[in-house]
Amino acid sequence: MVDRGASALSLPDDWPAHPDPILALNRMGSFDWDLDTGLFHMDALAHEIFDVRPDEYDGHPETLAMRIPPAEGRRLDTLVAQAIKDGSENYGAYFRLRCRDGTVRWNHTQGYIRRDETGRPRRIVGIVRDATQELSDLAERRDEAALDDARREQTNVVQLTTAALAHARTVRDVIDVLKDTHGLSHLGATSLVMGLVEAGRIRLVAEGPEGSFVPGTLVTRIDEPYPMSEVVRTLSPRFIESPDEFAAGYPILWPGLTDLKITSAAYLPLIVQARPIGAMGLLYSDRRGFTPEERNILVALGSSIAQSLQRAMFYEQEKDIAQGLQQAMLPRTIPSVPGADVAVRYRAATIGGSLGRDIGGDWYDLIPLPGGRVGAVIGDVQGHDTHAAAVMGQLRIVLRAYAAEGHTPATVMARASVFLHELDTDRFATCLYAEADLSTGVLQVVRAGHIDPLLRAPDGTCRRVAVPGGLPLGLSAEFGTLEYPVGTIELDPDHTLLLCTDGLVEEPGADLDDGMKNLTALIAGGPDDVRDLADRLIEVADERGGDDDVALLLLRRRGLDSPRTGGRLQQHVAPGDPEALTHARHLIRAAVRSWGARERADEVELVADELITNALMHTEGAAIVTLRVLTGSGRRLRVEVEDSSSALPRRREAGESGVSGRGLLLVDLLTDVWGVEARGGGKCVWCEFVVPERI
């Protein structure tokens, strides 16, 4: 050891007879080395430090060789020679000294080189002291510092592992945190094994590295002679400090571990609320034994892992319950729809990793209706919890029931709103209900606070369809506004209708309109197949994340593979309903066009409108309009309008104003043939139009 920090030393004139009192007080001996004569003078304390009596010492430094080991002497000589040679003013060094009783102790010396005016070294004065206690204290401080570093490192292991486990939500996440490269390096282990207690047995859920699995340990009984079984039985950790101890304690397990070159192991019970939920083993190949501090750290680590595992197990149980409830509330199967391809998807939101939050009130439904029609529903009950899911399930069932009873779309929505208002809940819901006649492609759409549907053409272009709407379900009944306007959409062959909840549209930092534009572009560039397109939309929703559920329904009307040979449409038109006649016109026009008679659509619509209007004006009941395609001797389109009056229509001359009396004239002029039939207590006015062979 070398110390260059020595300072200049001035000795008293009557030295060594009267040594420096400060040096003596600090148990330091002094020396004066005359380089010209080679004499090395020491005071009494220096003699004491070198453990030589005055009568044993002749003033020559070589005499001190009896106390200084040769290697130490050579090192000191080299140090002094180098200091003299390179012009240094001082030097310092620690060296060992062997006392007369054979013990070895450490000393320290400092020397100051005095030179003449030419720079030639003439004299070295310095001090020497016993440094045994100093170096012992230094070594102790270093050991303490090393121990503190080790403790901090071990504590850091727990902190890092605990921090990583804080983000683990499932049992698999916990295992991955412990098994990944950083996890094992933090733990300092070569291999890890973990098992969970299930029905009185321990099921292995993690082992590593690859190839370290011991056959027969996948499922073990708690009473078997394995270390994990032992720590579960005793609720105490088991520290194995050598291969011999491992082999002697667990002869069945040890042969399967010999290739891993295990030198020690720590098996920890995973205990929560005084109950073992599993056990974990850390196997080491580069250490033997465990200090008390290391054992305490590992026990603390086991406790942290146990808490994370229990949290993960609770999360998975809650998630299974939530998903089971969600699946029970959604339709188990979607019926096949003749003439259409349908795809439905649901994605649950995960909010902040909270248990039971992977569930919400979004739903879809597809309802078969009489006459080949189908009802498509998309909705969203407020909230993300089991209550929202329960309300959703009830609302879905009653809405399906109202639609199956044959109510109009507006009535279905109004009754659903009343039902939700009368439930013992403070939740409201948005909903969109579309009733489709796939033979004509006519969709009647009712919207209750929900986002508009989208329509995609065969060439991929996609547009948002603005549909008039009313208040959300539950709110409309509360505010007494139960009228829902009905919009009409024509769904041509190979066109696709998309209904979705706002979780598919909303994006962080963007408003709803921007989200709809982005969704429209995504659909336009998506796959043609509705199932592939639905998968793509859910994939994008997963990538984006978000704190809302996503439900979507895609309905694509198939194109006609061959000319259509027939078709039928029937519509009930109630009196006193100003919208009913408008809806009937839309249905008639769409049906005629879909049956290949586009060139006669205006004539058919005009005649049907006239017959329906006459039925409503001159009878006290409703009118039923039926369109059919007749085949046989040529193709004809037949329009029938039934009412409850037996009075036959008659021709009248137009009045002076010219606004009435022309009805039968128009019918006679525009149709190819027409007539009247008695129907029970009423009548049916019918007419036929010859249409092209290809319908």
Short description:
This protein has 695 residues and is α+β, with helices and mostly antiparallel strands. 34% of the residues lie in helices and 27% in strands. Helix 4 (132-165) packs parallel to helix 9 (292-329) and helix 10 packs antiparallel against helix 11.
Helix count? Answer: 17
**Unreliable runs, pLDDT <50, ≥5 residues?**
4-8, 352-356, 561-565
Helix content: 25-40%
How far apart are the termini? 108 Å
State the shape: elongated
Which structural category fits the helices and strands? alpha+beta
Give the rounded overall mean pLDDT: 82
What does this structure look like?
By secondary structure, this protein is α+β, with helices and mostly antiparallel strands. Helices cover 34% and strands 27% of the residues. The strands form 5 sheets. Strands 8-7-6-11-10-9 form a 6-stranded antiparallel β-sheet, sandwiched between helices. Strands 13, 14, 15, 16, 19 and 20 form a 6-stranded mixed β-sheet that branches. Strands 2-1-5-4-3 form a 5-stranded antiparallel β-sheet, with helices on both faces. Helix 15 (578-594) packs antiparallel against helix 16. Residues 4-8, 352-356 and 561-565 have low confidence and may be disordered.
What is the topological layout?
Elements: H1 21-25, E1 28-34, E2 40-42, H2 44-50, H3 70-85, E3 90-98, E4 104-115, E5 121-130, H4 132-165, H5 171-179, H6 181-187, E6 191-198, E7 201-208, E8 219-221, H7 227-234, E9 238-240, H8 243-249, E10 264-272, E11 275-284, H9 292-329, E12 340-347, E13 361-368, E14 373-381, H10 386-404, H11 409-422, E15 429-437, E16 442-448, E17 454-456, E18 462-464, E19 469-470, H12 475-478, E20 486-490, E21 496-500, H13 512-524, H14 530-544, E22 550-557, E23 568-573, H15 578-594, H16 601-618, E24 623-630, E25 636-643, H17 663-670, E26 673-679, E27 682-690
Parallel strand pairs: 16-19
Antiparallel strand pairs: 1-2, 1-5, 3-4, 4-5, 6-7, 6-11, 7-8, 9-10, 10-11, 12-22, 13-14, 14-15, 15-16, 16-20, 17-18, 17-21, 21-22, 23-24, 24-25, 25-27, 26-27
Helix pairs in contact: 4-9, 5-6, 9-10, 10-11, 15-16, 16-17
